[in-house]
Amino acid sequence: MRSLFYVLTALAVMGLAVWAYRENYRTQQAIAEVEDLHRDIGVLREKLAVLNAEWAYLNRPDRLMALAEINFDRLGLMPLAPEQFGNLDQVAYPVYELPEIVIPEDFLGSLLAEEGEGLQ
C-alpha cells in the first residue's frame, strides 16, 4: 500500500513539473509578445512625431502665404483680414414658432375627476 502511495506521489510530482515547465514557456512567450508590442508602439510614436513635425513644417504661415501668392491666378486666394469676420449679433438665427399647447376642457375635467376619485 505504501509503495502505491509513493508511486502515485511521484507521478503527481512529475505531472506538476510538466505543468510548471509548460507554464514557464507560455509566460516567457507572453512576455516576449508584450516586449514586441512595446517596441512597435515606440516605433509608431517616433513615426507620429516625425509626421507631426512635417505637418508643422508644411503649414508654416510664411510658406502658405508664398504658395498662395504663387498660385493666385489659379486659386484666387486672398489673405484673411479682421474685417472679413462678423460679430455674433450679426448672425441671423432662425426663429422657430412653437405650437400652442391646448388641453381640451373635457380632457382636463376627466383628469381632475380621476385624481379626485383616487384621493377619496
Number of helices: 4
Structural class by sheet pairing and helices? mainly alpha
- How many distinct beta strands? 0
- Principal-axis shape equals flat
Q: How is the main sheet built?
A: none
Q: Characterize the quaternary organization of these chains.
A: single chain
Counting structural domains, the number is 1
End-to-end gap: 85 Å
Strand content: under 5%
Q: Roughly what percent helix?
A: over 70%
| Order of H and E elements | HHHH
Radius of gyration: 39 Å
Mean pLDDT: 87
**Poorly predicted runs:** none
Folded structure, characterized:
The chain is an all-alpha fold. It has one domain (2-89). It is 72% helix and 0% strand. The longest helix has 57 residues, at 2-58. The protein is flat.
Describe this structure in a few short sentences.
This is Cell division protein FtsL. This protein is mostly helical. The chain has four helices and no strands.
What characteristics describe this protein?
0% strand, Cell division protein FtsL, flat, 120 residues
Q: Topology of this protein?
A:
Elements: H1 2-58, H2 61-70, H3 72-75, H4 105-119
